[in-house]
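Researcher: Go.
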Amino acid sequence: MTIVLTALSLLRTHGGSLRQDHSWDVYFGPEAPEGQENNWVQTVPGKGWNTIFRLYGPLEAWYDKTWRPGDIELME
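Model: Structure:
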């Protein structure tokens, strides 16, 4: 399962919310956080999952390592 492509597709087609800096917050879990239903990808409780990050035509900042994606963070 390619969860990242699913997440981006959901955000684009279901009106996911952009942050002021034009980044996306994507939430993974069995239930959506309140008010974040359009930025949420459902997971199955008790099952593992993976993410894949794929860049198409990365810019120089990727190669010179001045930019990198943020880490996935646990939210309580």
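Model: Residues 3-63 form one domain.
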